[in-house]
């Protein structure tokens, strides 16, 4: 069996890394194709997880529309599929890269396996374009790796054949375990944020990058954070996404506030340190919502809908949208309470998703 793994963005690299590790462990031939959708943010993740792309598309150009990105991925994928000649291709999540590579593979009659299948909002606008991307991938894929019962139920509801769906958990839990093992005893001694580490202030971690929040939504979120920073008992750390639609308004509203630390995107070990140490997370990130339960850190999700309702139902996440007063009210609740979420069980599995995925890939290739 020859597997081709498609990786476009930072979260895809983080969530595909455990699958790559497992394939390597079992001596199964695989190669990695990177579309480089978020190039600068991808490189440190590849280095940290000790994986490297074999095929690089380098598709990004300034001021590209989604359609331009899509057409470049589609034609480049054609070339790489010819070169790699895989028996099966693995895509992850709901990015433009995953969608167009799935379509390219379909056109070449190469089976597609979808990691993190079945997430839905059933609202085309939320998030745009991810909801439609993942529905398209579900129409194309031959094997669907659902992370949760809810995702599995969505696929069944859409008449995806039951015998093509596997409930495996989310590989993000595997990644976190691998990463923490690698960090080892150093995990608490990392000098990333020396002053913060010794501070007894409450740490608030903020991230955000969704297209649905560009413009007015992001401005409201920034205003809420600005007001939150007036509390002298908080230190706010905000690794700012490199997209200019995020970077520019964030720096304009939140620059030069003594307890708001606007920093470059951080490496994965630093992110783990922040997730662990934070009293509260404010984010629209899908991956961070899935990571929060591993650390039992509560999260305000700056969206009005979510395809990851498991975290909300577990009691760890609250959907706050982008309304400034709602964000402030909910943040205040968590910052002023002595909560304990240690009893919450992780809806994303036990860290064995990659082992299950590779088992299933082997079975699939034998059946073919
Ligand atoms: N992440 C990171 N450094 C950062 C911000 C995020 O390592 O500065 C990680 C985060 O822990 C999670 C993933 O990147 O695993 C999420 O990426 P992002 O929020 O860009 O995408 P999403 O998950 O929303 O698609």
TrEMBL record:
EC primary class: isomerase
Q: Where is the UDP-N-acetylglucosamine 2-epimerase domain?
A: 22-361
The UniProt keywords, alphabetically, are: Isomerase
Which domain of life does this protein belong to? Bacteria
The record ties this protein, via CDD domains, to: GTB_UDP-GlcNAc_2-Epimerase
Supply one GO molecular-function term.
Answer: UDP-N-acetylglucosamine 2-epimerase activity
Q: What's its EC?
A: 5.1.3.14
Give the family this protein belongs to, as stated in its UniProt record.
Answer: Belongs to the UDP-N-acetylglucosamine 2-epimerase family.
Question: Mind telling me what this protein is named?
Answer: UDP-N-acetylglucosamine 2-epimerase (non-hydrolyzing)
Q: Which gene encodes it?
A: wecB
């Amino acid at each position: 069996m020859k597997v081709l793994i498609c990786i476009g963005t930072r979260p895809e690299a983080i969530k595909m890394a455990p699958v790559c590790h497992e394939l390597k462990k079992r001596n199964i031939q695989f190669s990695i194709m990177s579309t480089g959708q978020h190039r600068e943010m991808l490189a440190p993740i590849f280095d940290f997880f000790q994986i490297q792309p074999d095929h690089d598309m380098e598709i990004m150009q300034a001021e590209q529309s989604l359609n331009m990105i899509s057409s470049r991925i589609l034609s480049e994928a054609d070339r790489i599929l010819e070169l790699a000649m895989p028996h099966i291709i693995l895509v992850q999540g709901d990015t433009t890269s995953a969608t167009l590579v799935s379509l390219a593979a379909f056109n070449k009659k190469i089976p597609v396996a979808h990691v993190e299948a079945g997430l839905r909002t059933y609202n085309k606008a939320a998030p745009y374009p991810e909801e439609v991307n993942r529905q398209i991938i579900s129409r194309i894929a031959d094997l669907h790796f659902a992370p949760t019962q809810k995702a599995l139920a969505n696929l069944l509801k859409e008449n995806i054949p039951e015998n093509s769906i596997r409930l495996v958990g989310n590989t993000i839990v595997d990644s976190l375990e691998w990463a923490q093992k690698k960090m080892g005893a150093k995990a608490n001694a990392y000098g990333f944020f020396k002053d913060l580490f010794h501070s007894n202030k409450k740490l608030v971690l903020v991230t955000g990058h969704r297209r649905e929040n560009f413009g007015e939504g992001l401005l409201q979120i920034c205003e809420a954070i600005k007001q939150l920073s007036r509390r002298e008992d908080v230190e706010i750390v905000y690794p700012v996404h490199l997209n200019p639609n995020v970077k520019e308004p964030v720096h304009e509203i939140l620059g030069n506030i003594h307890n708001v630390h606007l920093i470059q995107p951080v490496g994965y070990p630093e992110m783990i340190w922040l997730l662990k140490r934070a009293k509260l997370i404010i984010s629209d990130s899908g991956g961070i919502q899935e990571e929060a339960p591993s650390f039992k850190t509560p999260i305000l999700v700056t969206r009005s809908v979510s395809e990851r309702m498991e975290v909300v139902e577990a009691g760890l996440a609250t959907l706050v949208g982008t309304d400034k007063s709602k964000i402030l009210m909910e943040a205040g609740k968590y910052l002023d309470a002595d909560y304990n979420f240690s009893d919450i069980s992780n809806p994303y599995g036990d860290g064995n998703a990659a082992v299950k995925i590779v088992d299933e890939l082997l079975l699939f290739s034998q059946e073919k």
